Amino acid sequence: MKFLLISIISLSLFTVSYSQNCEQIVVDCESLLKSSEDGDSFISDGQTYTAFLDREKAEFTTTFYGGATYRLAASAGNRENFVIFTVKDEEGHILFTNKNYSNSPYWDFKVDTTIPVIITTELDLDLKGTGCVVMMIGFKK
């Protein structure tokens, strides 16, 4: 009985810690999405893509609409370069990866024609092995 109680308390503390950590990462990601050195302003598409990763990848699909300018922003903690994100078309061709840009926490781009894409997020295992990853997509005001 004592072991069960200790296990439940430990699990509860982990859940609270995980929740608080992810909540702060969402705030950090929102700030990356909205702020810009060149004064550009981006509005969230309303989705917050969150995953707890343990040496694995998260994948989701979305559609980018022609004529719009977007920003992808990703965070996994207080350092901005923990997350690697890759955007591929439906055939698997890489359209962009921030891995080629020192794991930049955001990417701004304009889409000429509407295209469905697959976005993969993962932690840079040289920097962090496990944790909450948050990605947001915004469009230019």
Helix-strand sequence: HEEEEEEEEE
Number of helices: 1
Radius of gyration from CA coordinates: 17 Å
- Major β-sheet profile: 5 strands, antiparallel
Can you walk me through this structure?
This protein has 141 residues and is an alpha+beta fold. The chain has one domain: Jelly Rolls (Sandwich). Helices cover 23% and strands 43% of the residues. The chain has one helix and nine strands; from the N terminus they run αβββββββββ. The chain has one helix at 2-34, and strands spanning 42-44, 49-54, 57-64, 69-75, 83-89, 94-97, 106-110, 115-123, 130-140. Strands 1, 2, 4, 7 and 9 form a five-stranded antiparallel β-sheet that branches. Strands 3-8-5-6 form a four-stranded antiparallel β-sheet, with no helix packed on it. Strand 5 (83-89) and strand 6 form a beta hairpin. The model is unreliable at 3-20 (pLDDT under 50).
Summarize this, please?
The chain has 141 residues and is an alpha+beta fold.
Keywords:
43% strand, 141 residues, single chain, 23% helix, disordered N terminus, 1 helix, Jelly Rolls
Topology:
Elements: H1 2-34, E1 42-44, E2 49-54, E3 57-64, E4 69-75, E5 83-89, E6 94-97, E7 106-110, E8 115-123, E9 130-140
Antiparallel strand pairs: 1-9, 2-9, 3-8, 4-7, 4-9, 5-6, 5-8
